């Protein structure tokens, strides 16, 4: 039977939606900040002298309101380089940096910090859906948890456990998405994380994951009445609690403290349990029964808040009135009954699971609870906001999912570092991100790993790169600084012959600024080529660079490639290849078959690959035909000019 206190508060508060509309925390925050090579996820090698630069990569989670991003490269408290991106949407972003400083010259060798600030000139006026996977998740689980520890490399990532259910979440085990909804398991675009140890997913080992302050994620084996655990860095799953002595089922867990003070709270259909687990890797000690469930009710979740508060979700075995959140005063784990509740916050619908946004103080007064619900009206689901936690609580509807949800107790929400809600609802296979109300907002985060720049020698020569560009080979190199540098003689060796000079590139004399150079060898055919630079000082002394080798193979077939870009304005590039020497015509026609331009006119050309830039600035917008004739080979393609 419901206690008189619960019944009174229910009548007083039922569906009141009294929550205020005050601004909460920021909507936007940067995470997954790291520095890589410019063209891959490989860590930056510390070398700017080769001219390739570095990429500062990060994620932004708000996909609705554009954000401005400022990146500071700092030597202690001093900013040495500022990079900016304006008007970007949520997603995975990168900014290229060539090593130059805000002042003259380049940033010297040393260890630097990378600081990223994301800001929005306007926030959201109400709780706003900023990401929706459109029911494509394929979830077969209840529960998710997010790593909100900025000192962890997986900060900002959301974890769940599942079994195959179709969609992109179609596997047994651990899945991970970023706080902006991007799949990021073992790789970007793939949700699954490879784990070792105990299997997760099947036989109901997949419910209510919760992360603790040390980076361990606890998972409920609901039917087995067990708790499993893995760490976000190792993903090795072990059984943490073998069996919890209860006649009911395990629904939710929460972990407080760190190290020796760690405590495990357990919500079951029969009551709330607890255990002082400390630093155990496999807990076999006592599990205390703390709060028995009142008759006709069951506990679905538990959460320890600020100010000695313990919040529990109470749920009826069958849908009906009287469900919601109970608050207990719990300065230390001790037996309680429902009569000891501080307050009861009732909701309409099936109360399911809790998470919390913790305010700036250690008191409960500035915290916000978020409660997921199912079957509110006509089988809808969503999230309630509960604030004024010192009482009486104010309940408001933060988000209502109007998709039909005919299954009870399926939704769970995790609150990220900035106060956004990541909502998993597996009746409709949804992963949603919901931003809270806010005004102009910003947040600054720092990369965990330092940016290390290696010593750049007072370079006469930096490393040399070669690549095939069109019909030639282009060499690129750079200098970090130069002293009395006359210039560079470019030398080439063909198929084992001696090096010969191809040309000379003038140097910059003496400079401390980064300089870039290039040279194109247009006299190439099929074969193996080696290149080097002879750097010559003003006094005539010289030294050689390392040798770079490149192989050019003759095409094995005739081919006319699609122009790029297409559509274009006003110019585009046309590439083609010849399998053997041929007399070639490359012409542009309009749709009436009239010749507009002759790019190659009856020229005899050797086997190889060719590239031509076509400037259509004097032509009208429309579709054009381009045709290659090479001996008996004829091929046509369409291109679109858009002005």
Which keywords apply here?
643 residues; Immunoglobulin-like; disordered N terminus; 1 helix; Methylamine Dehydrogenase, Chain H; 48 strands; mainly beta
Topology of helices and strands:
Blueprint: H1 4-13, E1 30-36, E2 54-60, E3 67-75, E4 78-88, E5 91-97, E6 110-120, E7 128-132, E8 145-146, E9 157-162, E10 173-178, E11 192-193, E12 196-197, E13 205-211, E14 216-221, E15 226-231, E16 236-241, E17 250-256, E18 263-268, E19 271-275, E20 288-292, E21 297-304, E22 309-316, E23 324-329, E24 343-346, E25 350-357, E26 368-374, E27 381-387, E28 394-401, E29 411-415, E30 421-425, E31 430-435, E32 441-446, E33 451-453, E34 465-469, E35 472-479, E36 482-494, E37 500-511, E38 515-521, E39 527-537, E40 542-544, E41 548-552, E42 559-560, E43 571-578, E44 582-589, E45 595-605, E46 608-615, E47 622-630, E48 633-641
Parallel strand pairs: 12-16
Antiparallel strand pairs: 1-2, 2-5, 3-4, 3-6, 6-32, 6-33, 7-31, 8-9, 9-10, 10-11, 13-14, 14-15, 15-16, 17-18, 18-19, 19-20, 21-22, 22-23, 23-24, 25-26, 26-27, 27-28, 29-30, 30-31, 34-35, 35-38, 36-37, 36-39, 39-40, 39-41, 42-43, 43-46, 44-45, 44-47, 47-48
């Amino acid at each position: 039977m419901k206690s008189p206190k619960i019944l009174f508060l229910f009548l007083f508060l039922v569906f009141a939606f009294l929550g205020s509309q005050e601004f909460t925390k920021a909507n936007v925050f940067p995470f997954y900040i790291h520095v890589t090579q410019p063209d891959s996820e490989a860590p930056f090698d510390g070398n700017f002298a080769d001219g390739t630069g570095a990429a500062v990569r990060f994620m932004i989670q708000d996909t609705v309101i554009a954000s401005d991003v400022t990146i500071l490269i700092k030597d202690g408290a001093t900013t040495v380089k500022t990079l900016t991106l304006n008007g970007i949407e949520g997603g995975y972003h990168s900014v290229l940096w060539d090593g130059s400083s805000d002042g003259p010259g380049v940033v010297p060798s040393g260890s630097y910090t990378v600081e990223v600030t994301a800001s929005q000139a306007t926030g959201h006026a109400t709780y706003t859906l900023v990401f929706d996977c459109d029911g494509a998740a394929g979830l077969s689980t209840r529960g998710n948890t997010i790593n909100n520890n900025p000192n962890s490399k997986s900060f900002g990532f959301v974890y769940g456990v599942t079994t195959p259910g179709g969609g992109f979440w179609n596997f047994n085990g651990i899945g991970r998405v970023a706080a902006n909804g991007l799949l990021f398991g073992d790789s970007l675009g793939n949700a699954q994380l490879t784990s070792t140890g105990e299997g997760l997913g099947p036989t109901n080992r997949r419910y209510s994951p919760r992360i603790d302050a040390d980076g361990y994620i606890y998972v409920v084996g609901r039917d087995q009445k067990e708790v499993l655990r893995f760490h976000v860095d190792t993903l090795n799953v072990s059984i943490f609690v073998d069996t919890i002595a209860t006649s009911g089922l395990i629904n939710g867990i929460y972990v407080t403290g760190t190290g020796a003070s760690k405590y495990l709270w357990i919500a079951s259909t029969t009551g709330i349990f607890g255990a002082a687990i400390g630093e155990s890797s496999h807990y076999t000690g006592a599990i205390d029964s703390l709060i028995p469930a009142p008759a006709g009710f069951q506990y679905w979740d538990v959460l320890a808040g600020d100010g000695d508060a313990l919040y529990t979700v109470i749920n009826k075995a069958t849908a009906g009135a009287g469900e919601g959140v109970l608050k207990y005063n719990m300065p230390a784990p001790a037996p309680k009954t429902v009569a000891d509740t501080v307050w009861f916050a009732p909701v309409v619908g099936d109360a399911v699971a809790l998470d919390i946004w913790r305010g700036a103080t250690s008191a409960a007064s500035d915290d916000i609870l978020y409660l997921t619900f199912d079957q509110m009206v006509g089988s809808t689901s969503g999230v309630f906001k509960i604030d004024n936690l010192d009482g009486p609580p104010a309940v408001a509807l933060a988000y209502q999912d109007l998709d039909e949800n005919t299954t009870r107790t399926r939704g769970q929400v995790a609150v990220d570092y900035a106060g956004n809600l990541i909502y998993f609802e597996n009746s409709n296979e949804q992963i949603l991100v919901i931003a809270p109300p806010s005004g102009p907002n910003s947040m600054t985060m720092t990369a965990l790993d330092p940016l290390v720049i290696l010593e750049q020698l007072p370079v006469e020569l930096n490393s040399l790169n070669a690549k095939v560009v069109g019909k030639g080979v282009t060499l690129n190199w750079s200098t970090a600084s130069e002293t009395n540098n006359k210039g560079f003689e470019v030398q080439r060796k063909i198929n084992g012959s001696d090096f010969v000079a191809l040309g000379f590139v003038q140097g910059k004399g003496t400079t401390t600024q980064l300089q870039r150079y290039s040279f194109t060898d247009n006299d190439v055919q099929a074969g193996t080529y080696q290149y080097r630079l002879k750097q010559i000082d003003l006094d005539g002394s010289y030294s050689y660079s390392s040798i770079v080798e490149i192989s050019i193979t003759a095409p094995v077939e005739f081919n006319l490639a699609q122009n790029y870009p297409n559509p274009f304005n006003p110019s585009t590039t046309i590439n083609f290849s010849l399998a053997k020497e041929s007399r070639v015509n490359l012409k542009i026609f309009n749709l009436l078959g009239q010749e507009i331009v002759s790019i190659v006119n009856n020229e005899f050309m050797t086997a190889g690959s060719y590239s031509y830039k076509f400037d259509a600035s004097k032509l009208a917008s429309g579709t054009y035909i381009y045709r290659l004739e090479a001996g008996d080979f004829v091929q046509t393609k369409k291109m679109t000019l858009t002005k």
